[in-house]
Specification:
The model has no long low-confidence stretch (mean pLDDT 78). It contains 1 helix and no strands. The radius of gyration is 62 Å and the shape is flat. It is an all-alpha fold. This is Periaxin-like.
Length: 127
């Protein structure tokens, strides 16, 4: 079981209530100040904006027209015609016909055939 000092608890509670009291008082002062500002503040008239016609317009600058220089027209160059080269045609070379090689057939070796061994009598199956 914890023993708590009652004096400590009471001092903490009074400190908390004092803080709460100060906060409430400040909130009341702020509310009153807002009310006073709203009541005593005169309405400020909106400033009149000047009309656009009153703003002086600058004259558009005039630039002298510069004539485009005429470029001399040059004659189109004439390229000499290059004759097509005629390549001589060579006859197709004839390939000599090769002799067809005859491959002799290799005979298959005869394998010795064995007779099937006779099986012994059937063995009875074990249950």
């Amino acid at each position: 079981m914890l023993l708590v000092d009652m004096n400590l608890i009471i001092s903490m509670l009074t400190t908390f209530t004092e803080i709460q009291f100060v906060i409430n008082k400040q909130l009341a002062i702020q509310a009153e100040a807002r009310h006073l500002i709203e009541v005593t503040m005169p309405e400020i008239p909106k400033p009149e904006l000047p009309y656009l016609s009153k703003i002086p317009t600058l004259p558009k600058p005039e630039f002298p027209e510069i004539p485009k220089p005429e470029l001399p027209t040059l004659p189109k160059p004439v390229l000499p015609e290059i004759p097509k080269l005629e390549l001589p045609t060579f006859p197709k070379p004839e390939l000599p016909t090769l002799l067809k090689l005859e491959i002799s057939v290799i005979p298959k070796p005869k394998l010795q055939t064995f007779s099937k061994p006779e099986s012994p009598d059937q063995v009875p199956k074990h249950p």
